[in-house]
Design a protein that fits this description.
This protein has about 300 residues and is α/β, with parallel strands linked by helices. The chain is built from ten helices and twelve strands. It is rod-shaped, with a radius of gyration of 31 Å. About 30% of the residues are buried.
Amino acid sequence: MEFKHIEYFIKASEYKSITQAAEALFISQQALSKCIQNLEAELGCRLFHRTSKGSILTDEGQLVYDRFSPIVRKFYRTGGEVTEMLNDKKTVTIANSPMLFGFLFPDVLYAFKEQYPNYELDILDRSDREVMQYVLDCPSHLGLIIEPEHWHGRQTQFTLIRTYRLQLCVHKDHPLSKRKSVRFGELKNEKFLLLDEQSYYPQIVKDKAAEYGFEPNIAFRSADHHLLTSLANQNKGILINIPVPMTDLFKDLRFVPIEDEDMTFSIAFIYQDYEKLDKPQQRFVEFMREYERQDVYAP
């Protein structure tokens, strides 16, 4: 039994006229009559008495109408609600570590807006620690953060997006730039360029250096990742980083994998309770997960 046949039958019942119902449905009278005949053949009974006053429901036809008319009305109402929902302006607010959308996901915001033009994106640039606090402050807050892989889930629920092994970012003339990989312990005598304490990178660097029995020599630290990358490009020190797309401004940089097994960072959405996020936020999370599965913006 096709839903279209039920829909057409309900319309004919309400108009009590095949001609008028056909006009309302924008189909021919013959097509509507054929549709009702097919439904009657499938049910094994007549649904209408044809009289000079129009088409009157039989007892069987009244039963079919009583059962299916609420379903058809709900179908129409749901369609209208969905259309209204898609056309209604909504805001998706996300607190995000500054480098994530700019460096790693440059296309996802544009692609999301193309698919959902009625959604406004409000991206709040925060440090790693500020993103975490933002999410902890309210059950409906959503954050996108990068932190050590084994840290996810300590304070919030999360949806994993991508995992990276940390790499050494050095100038092409640095001796380590020719290596296929390095152990963190080999960086004992290097000058480190570090993000400030609002990022999780410095703690990882300090903890790892302590394992190898040394204190990292910090040449410069800043909250500005672009500045640190620029200094590494000038051979002013080394930078521990995830692999990010390099522009012509940083063409002299080289990435060298770090062998230590625990030197991995993951990008993830964080929230207190997924069910307490609003629907636009949930839609953005699922949209980004689908993009990641398709490798649309994989480096």
